Fold this sequence. Notes:
By secondary structure, the chain is mainly α.
Amino acid sequence: MSVNTSIETVNTNVECFDIEKVAELFASCLLDEDDVLMDIYLAAYEEIMKFFQLMGTIFGFVSSDVRNKIDILYELRKTDNESQTHFETFKGMLLHERDANLLTAKGYVSGSRTLLRLHRGLEFFYEFLKRLQDLQSDEKTASVCRTAYDDTLGKHHAFLIRKGARLAMYAMPSRGDLLDRVCHDVPSAVAMLPKMLQNTRKAYDRTEQLYTLYDLHNLP
């Protein structure tokens, strides 16, 4: 994963980030008491991708990697058919790849490993926005972004990536400017943020429980 620390570039061709949509999708992706629906989870992540892209090169250290991981899971979903649905849910995928000895098989891109990387990225997204909501409109977001990164994704990144990511965060705008950049209706987005964070956390916790249950947190 490379890090772009050049002058900030903002992607103006991306639709606004829809906090309400993320809240709805993460609520809908939970299946029964112990599973997650892949398609709806990925749809929520597509919306999160808009957030990363609208932030421009500041979040270049995560957005390109997230895009790649989402596309890998889409390709695995395409292998499902009427007679087999190994990748329809998280539990189904984890069990299928474990039982078929695919988790570390040569020449095979593991969906379980891929999802684990998205799972870690979701924790960063959640922690950043959770801390962001406590800031005043004119307060800079760089500090809360760095601490959120250090507490989550940074634990899994090599030194050079961590260094580059933290340098890129110096260009982070104020809370007010950030929300103006990524959201179409800022007052509505701020009002919906607690619900979105609550539902995101539920999806994160459900996924965390599955990886803990099957002892897959340390996939290489």
